[in-house]
Structures are given as structure tokens and as C-alpha cells.
Amino acid sequence: MHEMALAESVLEIVAEAARRNGATQVRSVRLAIGRLSHVEPDALRFAFDVVTRNGIAQGARLEILATDGAAWCMQCSDTVPLARFGDACPRCGSYQLQVSGGDELRVQDIEIV
Ligand SMILES: [Zn+2]
Question: Pairing mode, if any, of strands 26-34 and 69-73?
Fold first, then answer.
């Protein structure tokens, strides 16, 4: 279950940012997750609850935003949106696509006290 490792690295980023800002508590965390990242939001929520127990981010609300994937279409010579791996280009229907984004996970912002 790689969501547990992800939740731990998210917590590290969040705790570090909170410390830098002299915060005593993290109220909420907003994550941007690419639709192509294979991250299961429910599993990530569960893992986040587990790793934040008894720490600075205990009880923090986790908000998950799904960001669109992107691919380079060789037919269109352009970047096109991609919802899923294996999908065709939404413009020309070509499968000659190179995924160029949408598999990332990023801490968008955090709310601290
Ligand atoms: Zn295309």
C-alpha cells in the first residue's frame, strides 16, 4: 500500500512548513493529485489519519483536488488533456501520446494555527 509512504512524505512536508512558520497545529492540508497518479484518495485519507496521530497535524482536514493529466500528441504536435492512461487524444483520436503531466502529487497549501 504505497499510500502509507505517500502520507508520510506529505506529513513531513507539512510538519516542516508548520515548524518554519512557528505553528502549533495544522488545521487543514490541501493536496493536488494527478488523475494519472494511481493514488486511491480514500486509502490516502486513511493513511493520513494514521500517520498524523499524536503529531502537529493531528485531526487536520485533508482536502484532495484531482488535477487533469496531460500528454503530448504527436499528431497534433500539441499538449492535450488526458483523463486516463490508454485513452486516445481527445482532439484527433490518435494513440501516439506521451504522458507529460498529471501523475504528480503536490501539497498545494496548508492552514496552520
Ligand atoms: Zn491529437
Answer: unpaired
Question: Over the stretch 98-113, which tens digit does the pLDDT of each residue have?
Answer: 998 888 899 999 999 9
Average pLDDT of 58-64? Answer: 96
Ligand 1 centroid – CA 80 distance (Å): 7
- Per DSSP, which regions of the chain are E strands? 26-34, 61-67, 69-73, 78-82, 97-101, 105-112
The widest CA-to-CA distance across the chain, in whole angstroms, is: 53
Q: How far is the CA of 16 from the centre of ligand 1 (A)?
A: 42
Q: Residue written as cell 493536488?
A: 32
